[in-house]
């Protein structure tokens, strides 16, 4: 069993911990698959009332693992473009990125994300599906994918989490949003000192675990269904389709050469972990 994500359930709480601190919890397919297994296990365990998502190390998540080796042709080198093409890319990202995030959002049990340090690009796709977010005072959030010519990550929570004007600012400028600003915008529930993050998140989880499970599930359903009625699922799907269209633009821009994408990925990686 992969140790990229750790799982433990006790006292009504499922503890899910990202465990790739040496690469700032960057997400590779193995981590994402293991993470999805943990969410599913928590949903199926009748003793679990609340899910607590945390991360080992300095940063919550630096997003997708964008490591590019010298012998690789481009950022998608690990993907078999010759045989699968754009269609395969679309289906792969839909199942591994978009559907994972949407499935975690729709998990029937309440969830909390405890975020420290950097939460960048695809890192947002881990915390945004959670019902509550508690952030350390050193946490920051950004989506600098415009550097690669892409208007945001695969799961477009931006408008719903930040409001339209702040969402546009995040996407247009690639600027960071601090934990305190995120709290003012309503994206984060609480901001605490870094050394208090673990206890604050656990305290919230314990408080939720005191409640009746069915009541918790119905309370979550009420809020989620309200957002569904407002059109969130259709909006998320439309945004994902735009995201995938922009992959074709990136390929056309690179004209089969690695230089442009390699340069952009290098800039993005610096942005992701700096600070």
UniProtKB/TrEMBL annotation:
Alphabetized SUPFAM superfamilies for the sequence: ClpP/crotonase
GO biological process terms on file: fatty acid beta-oxidation
Protein name: Enoyl-CoA hydratase
Domain of life: Bacteria
Organism of origin: Mangrovimicrobium sediminis
InterPro entries with a match to the protein in the record: ClpP/crotonase-like_dom_sf (IPR029045), Enoyl-CoA_hydra/iso (IPR001753)
Gene Ontology MF terms: catalytic activity
């Amino acid at each position: 069993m992969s140790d990229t994500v750790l799982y433990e359930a006790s006292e009504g709480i499922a503890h899910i911990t990202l465990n790739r601190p040496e690469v700032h919890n960057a997400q590779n397919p193995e981590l994402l698959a293991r993470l999805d297994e943990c969410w599913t296990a928590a949903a199926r365990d009748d003793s679990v009332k609340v899910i607590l998502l945390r991360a080992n190390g300095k940063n919550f998540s630096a997003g997708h693992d964008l490591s590019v080796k010298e012998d690789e042709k481009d950022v998608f080198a690990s993907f078999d473009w010759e045989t699968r093409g754009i269609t395969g890319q679309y289906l792969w990202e839909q199942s591994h990125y978009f559907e994972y995030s949407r499935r975690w959002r729709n998990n029937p049990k309440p969830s909390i994300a405890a975020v420290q340090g950097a939460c960048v690009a695809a890192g947002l796709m881990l915390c945004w599906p959670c019902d509550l977010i508690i952030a350390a005072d050193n946490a920051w959030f950004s989506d600098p994918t415009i550097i690669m010519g892409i208007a945001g990550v695969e799961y477009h929570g931006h408008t719903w989490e930040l409001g339209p004007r702040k969402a546009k600012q995040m996407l247009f400028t690639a600027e960071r949003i601090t934990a305190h600003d995120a709290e003012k915008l309503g994206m984060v529930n609480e901001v605490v000192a870094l050394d208090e993050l673990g206890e604050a998140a656990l305290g919230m989880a314990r408080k939720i675990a005191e409640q009746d499970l069915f009541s918790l599930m119905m309370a979550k359903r009420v809020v989620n269904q309200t957002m569904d009625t407002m059109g969130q699922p259709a909006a998320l799907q439309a945004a994902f389709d735009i995201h995938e269209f922009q992959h074709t633009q990136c390929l056309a821009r690179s004209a089969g050469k690695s230089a442009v994408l390699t340069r952009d990925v290098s800039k993005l990686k610096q942005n992701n972990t700096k600070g």
